[in-house]
Design a protein that fits this description.
Layout (H helix, E strand, L loop, with lengths): L4 H4 L4 H16 L27 E9 L3 H8 L3 H16 L4 E11 L4 H18 L2 E9 L9 E12 L14 E6 L8 H11 L15 H5 L7 H9 L5 E4 L4 H5 L8 E5 L8 H10 L3 H7 L4 E7 L1 H13 L5 E8 L4 E3 L1
Parallel strand pairs: 2-3, 7-10
Antiparallel strand pairs: 1-4, 2-4, 5-8, 5-9, 6-8, 7-9
Helix pairs in contact: 2-5, 4-5
EC number: 6.3.3.1
Protein name: Phosphoribosylformylglycinamidine cyclo-ligase
Pathway: Purine metabolism; IMP biosynthesis via de novo pathway; 5-amino-1-(5-phospho-D-ribosyl)imidazole from N(2)-formyl-N(1)-(5-phospho-D-ribosyl)glycinamide: step 2/2
Amino acid sequence: MKPSRYEEAGVSIDAQDRAIAQIKSHVNSTQTDRVLSDIGSFGGLLDIRFPEMQYPVLVSSADGVGTKLKIAFDADRHDTVGQCLVNHCIDDILVQGARPLFFMDYVATGKLRPDVVADVVAGMAVACRESGLAILGGEMAEMPGFYNAGEYDVAGFIVGVVDKAKLLGADRVRKGQKLIGLASTGLHTNGYSLARKIIFEECGLKLDDLVPGTEARVDDALLAVHRSYFKALEPHLEVDRIQAMAHITGGGFLDNLPRVLPADLDASIDTGAYEVPPLFRFLVERGGVEREEAYRVFNMGIGMILVVDEAQQEALMADLEQAGMAPCALGDIVAGEGKVQLR
C-alpha cells in the first residue's frame, strides 16, 4: 500500500492509533470515581464537588523531567521517567497541602514509537494509581525534524485540591519552628546536566559501570524513581501537623526553602544532621563542586523539607520513620532575611 503524503512527510497517523491502543489500558487503570469521560474525548471531564470542604481551592502545576531523559534514551528504559514526572508534579502541589485529583501529559517526538510511548505512560499510570489520581487526558505530537532520532520530550500537568483553611505556606512559618528533612531516592529530576558531565565526560563511566562507593549501576542510580511524599504526609496534613513544606527540586536547598520563608526569617540547616548518600558525595568530590553550588544544584539526599511546630516534631518524625521516609531533624527557623543558612 502506497504511503500517504503525510507519512512521506514523517508523520504516521497509524502509529498514533497504535500508541493510543497500547496506552488505553494504562490510562483506564487510573480512573477514579470522579472521572466522567473516556480516553479519546476532546476534553477530560471531572466531578469537582467537594462537600467535605468549606472553601475548596484548586492547586495546579506543570513540569518535566529535564535531561534525565537523556539517560532513558541511552539506556532504552522509559517507564521510570513516567513515574518521575507524575511524582514530581504531585510533590509540587503537595507543598501547599493539596491532594492530587488528575494528571495530563504531553509527549512530543520526531518519529513516534508506540512501544516507547506505552512504556512512558505505563510509568505514569503506576505513579497515578499509587496516589489515587486519574490520567484525564494528554497529547502525543509527532514532529519530524524537530527532535533527534530516538528522542522525545515529556511534560506533565496536575490539578489538586485543598480546603483554604489548610493551605500551607510562609504565612504559617514562625521563629522557633523545626525543619524535618525527608530522604530522596537519588537525584530525582534535577541536576542531571552536571551529573552527566561529571559521570560520563570527566570520569568516563558507562551506564553498566558501578557508581564509585556504591553497589548501584550508573543507569540504575540515575533512573531511580523520583519519590512521591503524598501518601506518607497526607494523614498529617489532615490534622494540621505541618505548617509549610519545600520540595527540593531545581535550585536545591538554597532556592527552594526561601519560597516558604517570611522576609524576616531564615532556615538554619545543619548539614551534618544526616549522612549525605554516596552518589552525591561522589558527584561533589569527583566533580570539584563547591558546597554552596552542591546545595543549589542537587537535593543532596533530601527531597522534601517540612516546617513544623516544635511540639509536633518528635511524634511526626516517629510516624514518618515508620512510613519509610528516613526523616532527620534538619534545623530551625531563626531570625533573618528570608534566606538559608548552611552550618
